[in-house]
């Protein structure tokens, strides 16, 4: 596989709601490994879950001869088990989302569990590649209520899959391609809940470095009210 040249950057902002940042990220440029977790709530279980899930995921891939679907699912399963034990020890909620893009000999794997997101801008079209594992997503897709209703707002916090879930649900795992000119955005819901589709498309479409775009996105989150921790990883394919 020809490895494309990728301009990549990560940034995070605590926002104004919490005194601490419960988002956790890891970024390695070559071979590409970008991981993002968003802790659930603002307690010690949230902080421990995100940190533990990212560390275990990265460590598991480091021990694997080659990343593939089984390896990625095993890494998530290991994170489920460890974060579940943290919740039992704390006797409190311990959970987080986990989203990753992983380079492999056969291409790039995308891993998704929870409601952080991956967008791709290609030839002017911005697409959401991931599914939110929430009752709000199910409700909007199946017409239970309108997307901007009070019911949908409440259902945004009802995750159907997350790291630390007692049922140890599997993540979505699928391949993505990277073509010259592509821009990818990985972000927590602190970004996607505050910046709309059109604004994200404008940011990602700018002739600017990944670091500059990350800074603009985080500044826009703050200007929108800073209602949550906000973390963004931008990848530009040269």
Structural features, described:
The structure is a single chain. By secondary structure, this protein is of the alpha+beta class. It has a single domain, classed as Phosphatase 2c, domain 1 (4-Layer Sandwich). The strands form two sheets. The protein has a five-stranded antiparallel beta sheet. Strands 2-3-4-5-8 form a five-stranded antiparallel beta sheet. It is globular, with a radius of gyration of 17 Å.
Keywords:
238 residues, alpha+beta, Phosphatase 2c, domain 1, five-stranded antiparallel β-sheet, 10 strands
Number of domains: 1
Which percent band covers the strand fraction? 25-35%
The largest beta-sheet arranges its strands as: 1-10-9-6-7
| Rounded mean pLDDT score | 95
Quote the distance from N terminus to C terminus: 16 Å
CATH topology: Phosphatase 2c, domain 1
Q: Which H/E pattern describes the elements?
A: EEEHHEEEEHHEEHHHE
Low-confidence stretches: none
Helices, by number, come to 7
Shape type: globular
Query: Would you count the extended β strands for me?
Result: 10
Helix content estimate: 25-40%
Instruction: Output the CATH homologous superfamily.
Output: PPM-type phosphatase domain
Q: What's the main sheet like?
A: 5 strands, antiparallel
Radius of gyration: 17 Å
Level-1 CATH class name: Alpha Beta
Structural class: alpha+beta
Q: What would you say the CATH architecture is?
A: 4-Layer Sandwich
What's this, in brief?
It contains 7 helices and 10 strands.
Question: What is the topological layout?
Answer:
Layout: E1 6-13, E2 23-28, E3 33-38, H1 44-63, H2 69-90, E4 98-104, E5 107-113, E6 117-122, E7 125-128, H3 135-142, H4 150-155, E8 172-176, E9 183-187, H5 189-192, H6 197-204, H7 210-223, E10 230-237
Antiparallel strand pairs: 1-10, 2-3, 3-4, 4-5, 5-8, 6-7, 6-9, 9-10
